[in-house]
Design brief:
- There is one protein chain.
- With 312 residues, the protein is mainly α.
- The protein contains 13 helices and four strands.
- 42% of the residues lie in helices and 6% in strands.
- The protein has a two-stranded antiparallel ribbon with strand order 1-2.
- Helix 4 packs across helix 5, helix 8 packs across helix 12 and helix 9 runs parallel beside helix 12.
- The N terminus is likely disordered.
Length: 312
């Protein structure tokens, strides 16, 4: 009896084992893909196999690289956009300072790019006269506006952004008979620093146009100040003979602009008021006084009980 029972028990156990759940699948614990094949690539994303990847090739739930680590940011995500406002009347030097302070590029690199890079594919730049007397080549052409730059961008790209805007905002929109666009911009830059509002800009423009017509020196304080602060420390004392419009210095317009003029001063340079005035002054009351002669101007200030804010 014992001999017969053991074979029967063994057969029963084999039958029960064959019928147990999971036997047909091989009882592997490895995750399977949607096709039923075992996923064996290292670091693979199960969601990719199931067809849940986004249009960009990443999982719908998170951006992951093939290795499972976070995917690197796109170029636009990596580059920080910085908004910068350049006011009317800013010089090239001041613009370089502001860009440096905002982390756009180093001032020295910006100035070097403006001075040496070939931007002649811009018509305005191509028309700038080549003169050894001109100090900052692109002074006046960095149009004042609010811009969006990339932090750490190439300095020549930053300069190019200004020039593209200048082409759009200035182009050939401002003209005065007998003057080049560069001369109009130069005169506008002086007006920008001499007057505070559109009405007085046109009147100051008339004074300068009238002086140029009779070969009088402009005697503009702004040209002297620009020369002393921004040119002589960099280019030497000789620059005053090209930019300072006081006696014994530049006999007419400076060799180039002294700042970046805005739309109001550009318009004033091209469309001066119709007056015959040759003199003006800003008085201690903040108002502007004009006259065909210095005596006439001074009489108006005396009657108002004021004096010139700056000495003639």
């Amino acid at each position: 009896m014992k001999v017969r029972i053991l074979p029967l028990l063994s057969a029963a156990l084999l039958f029960l084992s064959a019928c147990s759940p999971g036997a047909a699948s091989g009882s592997s614990s490895a995750p399977s893909s949607a096709s039923g094949k075992i996923s064996s690539s290292p670091g693979s994303d199960p969601s990719a196999a199931s067809g849940s990847a986004s249009a960009s090739g990443t999982s719908a739930s998170s951006k992951r690289s093939v290795s499972g680590a976070p995917a690197p940011a796109s170029e636009s995500e990596q580059r920080q956009v910085v908004k910068v406002t350049i006011p009317e009347g800013f010089t090239l030097s001041q613009t370089g300072d502001r860009l440096a302070a905002k982390g756009i590029c180093r001032k020295a690199d910006f100035v070097k790019a403006a001075q040496t890079y070939d931007f002649s594919y811009y018509p305005l730049v191509a028309a700038i006269p080549k003169s050894a007397k001109r100090c900052y080549r692109l002074e006046g052409y960095l149009y004042p506006d609010t811009y969006e730059f990339y932090a750490g961008m190439k300095p020549e790209d930053a300069v190019g952004k200004f020039l593209r805007n200048a082409e759009s905002r200035i182009g050939n929109k401002y003209a005065y008979y007998g003057m080049t666009t560069d001369q109009v911009i130069t005169l506008a830059s002086i007006i920008e620093r001499e007057a505070d509002d559109a009405e007085n800009m046109k009147k100051v423009s008339a004074v300068f146009h009238n002086r140029l017509a009779v070969h009088m020196i402009l005697q503009a304080d702004s040209t002297r100040d620009y020369c002393n602060k921004y040119l002589i420390p960099v280019f030497g004392d000789g620059s005053k003979y090209a930019y300072n419009t006081y006696p014994g210095r530049a006999p007419a317009l400076p060799a180039g602009p002294i700042c970046s003029p805005g739309a109001a001063s550009l318009s004033a340079a091209a469309h001066p008021a119709g007056t015959g005035d040759l003199y003006f002054a800003t008085a201690t009351d903040g108002k502007y006084y004009y006259g065909k002669t210095q005596k006439e101007r001074d009489a108006l200030m005396a009657a108002a009980g004021v004096a010139p804010r700056y000495a003639d």
